[in-house]
Write a structure and sequence with these properties.
Blueprint (H helix, E strand, L loop, with lengths): L5 H35 L5 H18 L3 H9 L2 H4 L4 H24 L6 H17 L11 H32 L4 H6 L11 H37 L1 H4 L7 H16 L8 H22 L9 H22 L8 H14 L8 H15 L4 H10 L7 H20 L6 H17 L6 H32 L1
Helix pairs in contact: 1-2, 1-5, 1-9, 1-15, 1-16, 1-17, 1-18, 2-9, 2-15, 3-9, 5-6, 5-9, 5-19, 6-19, 7-17, 7-18, 9-15, 9-17, 11-12, 11-14, 12-13, 13-14, 17-18
């Protein structure tokens, strides 16, 4: 298969199965984030809640696109790390997958709400850094701009959720003060008795939204991970999208070529002049390749990875040059460059539909299993009081808004931390900080701070070991 030997074909299948396993674990690790509130407020029976959540996660992945997935792929510059030795690529993806699955399973077993996003990001960074320490390595093996962007999203989203939950709880309490609605919202649910229909409808809607947006955000991480596997092990088949007409691509390259050709480089630094010259050469080489074919499918297999390198490098260099105030590009030129680069990035920013379906099924099925441990932590151990209707609805409204915005802007966030911080904020809004169970909050914070360094060390160490063994 894919012109691989039998042993490497088996390894490829095993790696793809491991990606499904990661997304499956992600499903039952994170399903509590969506169903904890509807279960603890008796809005839905547990089995109904998890099946519905699984279905919404499935739909979320199918409709989520691949923008965030490509962010995961670009975190590790594969065009620099992949070489002719397939064993090196297998070592890389195996280290990422084993670390991510192990840490997710471990934190789930102990009932600690831990971020799959932190885990995956840390695993990728660990492998990239380990690659930098290999003898003879002289490349930047981590896309630090993308890493910083992801790090900011992962850091600030829980703080955003915590703060917004307090504000929303205050507004709800103020708006419904001394009314029957307020009394219904802020009282503890009666045992085994569902809430009033209108409250039940709100909680059902928020559960649906969190599940759907979780699928859009976390599902794309699995898609990105699968693409790392495919590009690393069989780049001749998956380095580029082979279903594109080259007419628009050639037109975009011509426009880029014209703007770069008319750029005055006399005031630029030496490094930026070199970057401008390199970009012109990459555009010319890519244009030459595309001029010979009517479809990307017709590009020779041995040239596909080189095409990917050129597209990625053109995108990176133009973004860097646009930040230079010494380059006097008009707004029209900048807009033309942005539109043209967006067009040619269709060559690299894609995923086969079968990958999206595979991840959708893995996440959806995983969501229906193993939810009790984390649900108990979220529903009973974050605050000292039983979750009220208002607290459950507030936490899930905030979580769905945060995750939805993150998916729209193509950045990963931790569903676990966003919802946990939302519940913590709603508890604080009720009776202050004293209403939090410090032992649980401490465990969550420790897992939050330890995840990145631990998985980075683990993934980097495994990569070095596997590379030596393979």
């Amino acid at each position: 298969m894919f012109e691989l030997s039998t042993s490497y074909t088996i390894l490829l299948v095993v790696c793809l199965f491991a990606v499904c396993a990661f997304e499956f674990v992600n499903g039952f690790h994170d399903t509590a984030n969506a169903v904890a509130t509807v279960i603890y407020t008796h809005t839905l029976k547990p089995w109904v809640a998890v099946i519905w959540s699984g279905f919404c996660n499935f739909l979320g992945v199918l409709t989520g696109g691949v923008g965030l997935a490509m962010g995961i792929v670009s975190l590790l510059p594969l065009e620099s790390l992949v070489d002719s030795n397939v064993a090196h690529s297998v070592a890389m993806v195996a280290a990422i997958l084993l670390t991510a699955i192990f840490w997710n399973l471990g934190t789930w077993y102990f009932g600690i709400p831990c971020s799959s996003s932190h885990t995956l990001t840390g695993s990728i960074l660990g492998v990239g850094l380990a690659f930098s320490f290999l003898p003879g390595s002289n490349i930047n093996a981590v896309n630090w701009d993308k890493a910083r962007e992801m790090g900011e999203a992962l850091l600030f989203s829980p703080l955003f959720g915590f703060t917004l939950a307090i504000i929303l709880m205050y507004l709800l309490r103020t708006a419904t003060k001394k009314t029957q609605t307020g009394e219904a919202l802020f009282k503890e649910p009666k045992k085994n008795q569902p809430p009033p229909f209108w409250i039940r409808s709100i909680l059902f809607l928020t559960c649906t939204m969190v599940s759907f947006f979780h699928g859009q955000n976390d599902g794309q991480k699995g898609v990105g991970l699968a693409m790392i596997v495919l590009i690393a092990i069989v780049p001749t088949y998956f380095a580029i999208n082979s279903n594109l007409d080259t007419t628009k691509l050639r037109g975009s390259l011509t426009r880029i070529e014209q703007i770069l050709g008319s750029t005055d480089s006399t005031s630029l630094s030496k490094s930026d002049r070199v970057k401008l010259i390199d970009t012109k050469g990459q555009v010319a080489r890519l244009q030459t390749t595309l001029n010979l074919v009517n479809s990307t499918q017709s590009i020779r297999k041995e040239e596909k990875f080189e095409v990917r390198k050129n597209v990625v490098s053109i995108d990176r260099n133009i973004k860097s040059l646009q930040k230079n105030v010494d380059i006097k590009w008009s707004d029209k030129d900048k807009n033309t460059l942005d539109a043209s680069v967006k067009e040619i990035k269709k060559v690299t920013d894609y995923s086969p539909y079968w990958i999206v379906v595979m991840i959708s099924l893995s996440l959806g099925i995983g969501t229906m299993i193993g939810w009790k441990r984390i649900v108990k932590t979220i529903g009973e151990k974050i605050g000292k009081e039983h979750l009220t209707y208002a607290q459950g609805a507030t936490a899930e409204i905030i979580a769905s808004i945060t995750i939805g915005l993150a998916s729209a802007y193509k950045v990963p966030v931790s569903t676990t931390h966003v919802l946990s911080s939302g519940i913590a904020g709603s508890m604080v809004a009720s009776k202050g900080v004293k209403n939090l169970q410090t032992s649980t909050i401490r465990s969550i914070l420790i897992a939050w701070f330890l995840t990145l360094p631990v998985v980075m060390i683990m993934a980097g160490g495994l990569f070095i070991i596997f590379r030596a063994l393979f």
